[in-house]
Each structure stands twice: as C-alpha cells, then as structure tokens.
Amino acid sequence: MRLNHFLALAAGGSRREADGWIRKGRVRINGIPPEGMGVSVDPEKDRVTLDGARVELPQERRYFAYHKPRSLLVSRRSQGGRRTIFDALGASIRGLHAVGRLDLESEGLLLLTDDGALSEALLHPRTALLRRYRVWVRPIPDPKKLRLLARGTTVEGLSVRPEGVTLEGADRGFGILVIDLAEGKKREVRVLAKAAGLDVTRLIRIQFGPVRLGTLAEGTIRALSRTEVEALRRHAFPVPSPGARLR
Predict the structure, then answer these.
(1) Which of 63, 89, 113, 131 could make an SS bond with 181 (beta carbons 3.0 to 4.6 A apart)?
(2) Which residues are catalytic?
C-alpha cells in the first residue's frame, strides 16, 4: 500500500494532506524517514509514525453528522486563538476529519469521517453533490433580486450559479431563502448573495447529498446510518451503466 494512502486511512486525512506530512518530515517508517513520496508500506509489518505517534488502520470506518455551531473553525489548528470543532468535540472525534468546510460564521451539517477515499470523492466537482442551505438575508428579496441570485456570479475566478433558489418566507424584516448548490466553493453562498445586493445574516447548511441535518441539536454529533453511508458511496463511486463507453 502506498504510504500516502495508508496515512490518509490511518490518520483520518486526505492523500494530499498525507503528502504534506511526508514532505514536512513528520512521518517515519520503522523509525526512518521515507525515501521519497512513492514508497509503499506493509500495514501488518511496518511501524508508521506521525509526529512520533504510531498510526494504524482502523478496524472499521466511522461516519458522523455534526451540527456545527457558529464561531467554530473547521480546522485542525486554531487561528488567532479561535476554537475549532476539534477543540469542542475533543477525544470523541480523534482520527476523524471534516468532509469539506463551513466558514467561521456558518452553521449546520458537517460530515466527519476517517474514510479519506470517500471524502475526496464526495468533494470532487464531478460528483456534483447537493449542498442545501437555509439563509437569512436582508432586505427581503424582491423578484428582481431573486432573478439576480439565480443568475449566479463569479467565485474564485469561475462562473457559478445555484441549482435552485426558493424564497421560503420572511421574518421581522429578513428574507429566508433555501439555496441549493452542486459544488462547495469558499463562501459561495455569501458571494452569490452579495452579487444580488443581499446581506447574509445567518447561514445554516441543512443537507449534504443524501444526509439531512434534521433535528440534530447544535453542537452534537450522531453516527450515520448504514443507509446514509451506502447512499454517499453510490454518489461518490457510481457504477457505470452496462452500455456506457469506457475511455
């Protein structure tokens, strides 16, 4: 097994993160730095350490839904003294990583897992996995602003547009929107809203692919059901139809 693949599975990261650990000299195989990036390891015979601590393949993959509160970073390390989701959840999520991101002021559904291969596949643009958000904005959008929002804008140099925009209601001067996206670019909902002349005051992700936030209380986690995990796998690793041409 290639070292970066082993590290992604054993330490709960992606292969890209694992490559970074190797480059920075944080990894040892039987006490010796690996010779290059493409080396292989035998999980049953080799002792692999990350920052001096041994890492091993888990016996069974773990998958969780987490209701992220506002003002927590989705990051392994604090920035500017801010708390992270890993600080908040502590030992209960040791070895897990977040599937994608929610920014500091955003709330809602975040998937946590130690399955690096599934995580990478779910985040790949080709998967086009649904991200659904409930968004409070001001002013209450009129039809013109809704059309501007649905038309899309440019995010990170690329043209993007929502898969769907619905005005769900209004409350005390705020419009409540449900916005569907097929890709998770940085602060995409906020950039789309700003381009339509709307100010986002609250943003909650309520669905990620087949997984829904539902009644999960803020700051708590739950294990995904077998049905949810299987549905995620079907999205991430679709089986080609019998008549599909292979390239």
Answers:
(1) 131
(2) 103
